[in-house]
Amino acid sequence: MALWRRSSSWLTSCSRAPAGIGGGNEAKVSPEVAPEDAAAEHEGRRAEAGDEERWSRLLPELLTDIVRRVDAGAERWPPRRDVVACACVCRRWRDAAVAVVRPPLECGRITFPSSLKQPGPRDAPMHCFIRRNKSTSTFYLYLSLTQALTDKGKFLLAARRFRHGAHTEYIISYDSDDLYPGSNSGVGKLRSDFLGTKFVMYDNQKPYDGAKSLKSRSSRRFATKQISPHVSGDNLEVGQVSYRFNFLKSRGPRRMHCSIQCPVGQGTASDPSKEKPPSTSSSLSLKNKAPRWHDHLQCWCLNFHGRVTVASVKNFQLVAPADTSDPWGVGDEETVILQFGKIEDDAFTMDFRHPLSAYQAFAICLTSFGTKLACE
User: Is residue 2 in a domain?
Assistant: First the structure.
C-alpha cells in the first residue's frame, strides 16, 4: 500500500502542477503498472541480461570459429537464417558475424541475397552451374560446393522463359516455385527482340543513383508486388547483350557483345543495411573470345581448363577488349570474366569473376539458350 500511496500522491502533485513545469510531460498519460507486473518485468530483463552476459563471455577465438562454421556449413538458400540467428545473440556475436561473413569479392562465397548482386572474387573465378528443364522452360543456378563439375550445389537463382507476342522474357527470381510476372520474389528480368539477337537486362532494385528506369506496361505489371519497401517499383536497365548477324552464313561460332552497367566504388560492407548505392556507374564492355580452328578435330576450340566437356554452339568466354580503359583494370584479353559451357544434355557450367555479379552472369548466360537463325 505504501507504493500505491506514493504513486497516487505523485500523480496528484503532477496534476496540480502549474503549466510549463515537468519538462513538457504533463500532457502525457502513462498506463498504470501493477507492482507484481513491474517486478516480473524487471526480473525478466535481469535474466535476459544475464544470458547475454554469459554468451558474450565466450573466448573471441571460439566465437569466431563458431560463426565461421555456421557460415561455411549452410548449403541451402537462404543460409542467412543461421548467420542472423548467431548475430542476434548479443553485440559481440553480431560483431563477429560481420567480421567473418564477407562479401563475395573478399571471401569468394555467397551468403546473403544481397551477395547475388555484388561483384565476384577478383583473384579466382566463382564456380557455378546451371540446370535446364526443357519441358517447363526453366533454368536453375547453383553454387558449386566441391571441385566437381556438378554436385548437390547451393541454389541461388531461378529463371523461366515466357513468350509475349513477338518478344521473349526471362523472369529471374530467388524462389524456384515463384517464376511469374509480378512475383514477390522477383529480382529482375531479361527481354529479347523478335530475332533473339538483342537482349536488355533489367533490375527491379536501384543499383546506383541515376539508373535508367523502364516506363512501360510490362514493367508495371512485373513490379506490382514487392516485399521490400526499399524496392523502387520500376524496372531499371542495367545491361545489354547483342549477337552479331551472320548474313553470309560464314563458318564460325556466335559473336556476342555485352555492355553491363557496373557501379563504381561498390562497397564491401558485410552488413546489407549499411550499404548505399553508389552515385555513379560505368559501362563494362565485354566480347566473346575468338576461338581457333582445330584442323585435326575439324571444329572451333577454346581452352575451358576442364570446366566444359561437350561441344556446343552455346559455349563462350567473355573478355574485355585490350584497349579498354575502365576503373576495374580488366582490359586484358587473356583474363576471362565469364565462361559458360555444356557438360551434359541439360547441365552447363558458369564461372564468373569481378566485376560481374552472380545475377549479371546468370542473365548473360540465359541469352545463349535458344536458337538464333540470324547468327548461325
Answer: no
Q: Which structural domain, as residue segments, surrounds residue 174? A: 113-366
The grid coordinates of residue 206 equal: 536501384
The gap between the terminal CA atoms of the chain, to the nearest Å, is 93
> Looking at the structure, do residues 209 and 353 belong to the same domain, yes or no?
yes
Condensed to tens digits (0 to 9), the pLDDT of residues 152-161 reads 888 999 999 9
- Global pTM exceeds 0.85: no
In a domain, 374, yes or no: no
The type of residue at 24 is: G
Are 199 and 337 found together in one domain?
yes
Distances (CA, A) of 263 to 117, 161, 239: 11, 28, 12
- What does the block give as the cell for 198? 538483342
Is residue 229 located within the same domain as residue 255?
yes
Cβ neighbourhood burial of 367 (10 Å; 0-12, 13-18, 19+)? buried
Q: Which three cell numbers stand for residue 368?
A: 545463349
Helix axes 35-56, 91-100, angle to 10 degrees: 40
Q: Say if CB 171 and CB 183 are below 8 A apart.
A: yes
Peptide bond into 277 cis (omega under 30): no
Query: From its phi and psi, is residue 71 left (phi > 0), alpha (psi between -120 and 50) or beta?
Result: alpha
Domain total of the chain: 2
State whether residue 196 is helix, strand or coil. Answer: coil
List, for residues 196-245, the tens digit of each pLDDT value.
889 999 998 765 444 454 444 443 333 333 333 333 445 789 999 999 87
- Residue 205 sits in the same domain as residue 328: yes
Beta-carbon count within 10 A of 353 CB = 23
Cell numbers at 38, concatenated = 513491474
The x, y and z cell numbers of residue 271, run together, are 552488413
User: What one-character-per-residue DSSP string does 42-76 give?
Assistant: HHHHHHHHHHHHHHHTS-HHHHHHHHHHHHHH--S
Q: Which residue has the cell 557483345?
A: 257
